[in-house]
Amino acid sequence: MKSLFHTSFIQYFRNGIAFRTVVVAGLLFTTTLDASPDGSPIPEIKFYPENPAKAVVLTLTFSKVEPVSFDSAVVSLKPAGGYPDGRPDVGVAIVDVYNSSTNSFTLFSPRRIRVYNADGTDSEKLQDSSQSTINFPFEPDASLATITDNLSASDVLVDLKPIIHDFCVGHLADPECYETDIAIASMGAVDPPPLVLLGKSADFTVRTIIDNNGPEAKPAPPAEEKGVDALFDQQVTNVSQGITVAPSGVTGQQEFGLKVGVSRTNDQTYVITCLEPGLQEATFTSTIEPLSAAVIEPHEVDTTVASNNTKAFVLSVDCAVPVTLNNKPHSFPNSVNPDKEGDIPVAVLTTEQGEYGNPLAFDAQTIDPSTVHYGVESLASYDNGATESHEATHIKDSYELDDKTRDKDLDAVMHFPAKDTGLSPGDSETCIKGKFTDGGNTFTFYGCDSVNVIE
Ligand SMILES: [Ca+2]
Ligand SMILES: [Ca+2]
Ligand SMILES: [Ca+2]
Ligand SMILES: [Ca+2]
User: Fold this and answer.
1) Which of 139, 245, 320, 367 could pair with 446 in a Cys bridge, judged by C-beta atoms 3.0 to 4.6 Å apart?
2) What is the CATH number of domain 2-170?
3) Neighbours of ion ligand 3 (CB under 5 A)
4) What region, left, alpha or beta, does residue 278 occupy, with left being phi > 0 and alpha being psi -120 to 50 degrees?
5) In this predicted structure, what is the pLDDT of residue 225?
């Protein structure tokens, strides 16, 4: 064993001083000492921060028969050792969080040892297995190391971000680590449609406001110039069974240059399709995380601080039942003079499923007249426009859309002041929106019909 250790040491020496660096690094964290007995201060050995160079040290196992495997890692507060040019037994490639290659090199296999023969000669042999370390300079933005063992024709990927992150959580004063507070400030829907007809789809835009509350702005001081790069995720969950939402979210969207004190707007658009009538919901959850593992958030170093990197927003969608509206029953082309006309009579028809293309049967007698609004789409759909002049529905068998026939079932006739409808020359349609009850539940109905505006 002794000679093996000796030969190994020689091997490491040949490869540079990297391995010994690792051993020393472990001692640097435990240096709390009293004054020496004669009262003179004990000299303080400072490897750091006088020398800010650091190394990532990976411990791996190389084997003749097994794929190369990753065992552990540490950040050493010493510069990385170099490797001499030689046989490219092992390849090391580092990429950063931007997927850029930042470092690559080759080295001798740690399985390679030199043995001394009885006749005084020495020769090289391969151990069956060897656990060894590989080190390279610390990069705050490093993301992934690929270690390729050409002797076993295998490779292993090592996620460097947790290693860097753990180091920086414990070394916030390190010039390559920094603390800043990225936050989801608010979420909401931008001009959401007031309703979506059953069987139809509409676009909804979910807006997230992202802040960088500082305090720091490394790695490119001044902060104002670069800001912090981050990854944005948004998940859609708790979707009511009455709607579908597409897509199901976004993952890993890059938000570059979040500057201290400057809000960032992130808009995501979803297509929501109504499958069942009624108020439906979906929860949108936004999350923002620094892209670089060297950026530390306040909640990671202070357990009394809550994370502000995630926020949820519940979007409500009113899935409305399409109904058939007949403006001016027994009359066509539904001419209206908004300035001179008093009330416009309209009928909401009772219809069977499939009649006039309506996806559900509708009984117009169940309309709650106090909830009904009528007028141009931009008013009626937002519960504005005219309301029923008598605050009532008049139940009678009104005229079908041909304005000639009556089908013997009972419809809801209502009257709306023309001056409140928002109609102006050029408009070609009015709409009606309100509530009705079905089986104890209250739903929204909505329908439109043509008008001929005259002056
Ligand atoms: Ca935060
Ligand atoms: Ca008509
Ligand atoms: Ca009918
Ligand atoms: Ca009827």
Assistant:
1) 320
2) 2.60.40
3) 350, 407, 409
4) left
5) 58
Measured between alpha carbons, how far is 17 from 185 in angstroms, rounded to an integer? Answer: 49
Residue 446 Cα to ligand 4 midpoint, Å, equals 18
**Which amino acid would we find at residue 66?**
E
Topology alike, domains 2-170 and 323-453:
yes
Ligand nearest to the CA of 215: 1
CATH number, span 323-453: 2.60.40
Backbone angles phi, psi at 411, to 5 degrees: -115, 175
Query: Which residues, chain by chain, have CB under 5 Å from ion ligand 1?
Result: 181, 183, 297, 308-309
pLDDT given for residue 334 in this prediction = 95
Ligand 1 centroid, distance to 299 Cα (angstroms): 7
Q: Which residue has the tokens 């091997």?
A: 11
Residue ranges covered by each domain of the chain: 2-170, 178-319, 323-453
215 CA distance to ligand 3 middle (Å): 67
**Nearest of 318, 246, 250, 240 to residue 282 by alpha carbon:** 240
Task: Give the Å distances, CA to CA, from 173 to 95, 151, 339, 387, 393.
Answer: 25, 41, 74, 67, 74
Of 353, 322, 355, 352, nearest to 436 by C-alpha is 322
pLDDT of residue 349: 98
Prediction pTM value: 0.79
CATH architecture of 178-319: Sandwich (2.60)
